[in-house]
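[job 4471] stage=fold_predict status=RUNNING
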Amino acid sequence: MTGTDFRRIALSMPEAVEGAHFGNADFRVDGKIFATLALEKDGFGVLLLSPEEQAGMVEDAPEVFSPVPGGWGRQGSTRVSLAKVSPGILEAAVRTAWRKRAAKRLR
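[job 4471] inference complete, writing structure tokens
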């Protein structure tokens, strides 16, 4: 997968829009960021998950998912290795992040 694939999948979520945060592409629903390409140059997309969701994904696929280093990672920010993730796994993970931020009417 590539950053372009990540962008396409993120924008396929209902009412998702692309924005920018500190000069990096981000993806929002209802004005809330659910994913970014802030680490794209390092080969990662980033999903904003709960710590519990993050732990489950890291446990299931540690070669694909890892916490963002530092405090953001402890709060659920999760790196996705674009080179190692399959399209189906990426879509499911992005949808999980999107649901966390989307209004109930969209879920």
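[job 4471] summary: DSSP finds four helices and six strands in the chain.
[job 4471] exit 0
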